[in-house]
Amino acid sequence: MATESKPPFPPFTAETARIKVKAAQDAWNTKNAEAVQMAYTPDSIWRNRDTFLQGRSEIVEFLKKKWSRENGYRLRKELFAFTDNKIAVQFWYEWYDESGQWWRTYGLEDWTFADNGLMRKRQMSGNDVKIAEEERWFKEGVDVNEVAITEKHW
Q1: Angle in degrees, CA 110, 126, 33, rounded to 5
Q2: Distance CA 132, CA 86 (A)
Q3: Which one, of 76, 98, 92, 95, lies nearest residue 29 by Cα?
Q4: Backbone angles phi, psi at 111, to 5 degrees
Q5: Which residues neighbour 60 within 8 Å (Cβ) at sequence distance 6 or greater?
Q6: Which residues contact 127 (CB under 8 A, 6 or more apart)?
Q7: Backbone angles phi and psi of 97, in degrees to 5
Q8: Beta 40-48 vs 119-131: how paired, if at all?
Q9: Residue 44 near residue 122, CB atoms below 8 Å
Q10: pLDDT of residue 123
């Protein structure tokens, strides 16, 4: 495990922080919990809303459960701020529940990285907003990075 790494490594620049954010976005959009877990240290600490986790096995269990409930999940992350080994992210994702109701989740994340580029701490706060089908941004076939998200939603 000591040889695990995930570039880019801290200290971050604006360019390397953006690379890290978009890599996370792309990984999460696969909805492959086994692959996603590898971006985190084996003992990574998470707070996701009101859920507290530690370690990759808990991360995998959490993500599998999350993605089994959040149908049609599509995510966009954008760099909010960064320092040497920390990145703050603003995100939006859309999904529908078992009744077919669409939702958009708005949130912020606070990430802290180990020297090897793996995330050792992740905190997430988010709010779910009901949306109608016609209000969706991230429809199938749409590049989430190309959607114009106005200041109203920032």
Answers
A1: 70
A2: 35
A3: 76
A4: -115, 140
A5: 33, 34, 37
A6: 105, 106, 107
A7: -90, -175
A8: parallel
A9: yes
A10: 98
The count of residues in the chain is 154
Q: Are the beta carbons of 107 and 114 closer than 8 angstroms?
A: no
Q: What token pair was written down for 119? A: 């995330």
Spatial separation of the C-alpha atoms in residues 76 and 143, rounded to whole Å = 10
- Residue 100, φ and ψ in degrees, nearest 5: 95, 0
Q: State which residues of the chain have pLDDT below 50.
A: 1
Spatial separation of the C-alpha atoms in residues 137 and 118, rounded to whole Å: 30
Residue 106: how many CA atoms within 13 Å on its side-chain side?
Answer: 9
Distance of CA 18 to the CA centre of its chain: 13
pLDDT confidence of residue 100? 98
Task: Quote the CA–CA distance of 125 and 148 in Å, as a whole number.
Answer: 23
Q: Are 118 and 7 in contact (CB under 8 A)?
A: no
Structure tokens at 102: 């669409």
> Quick check: pTM over 0.90?
yes
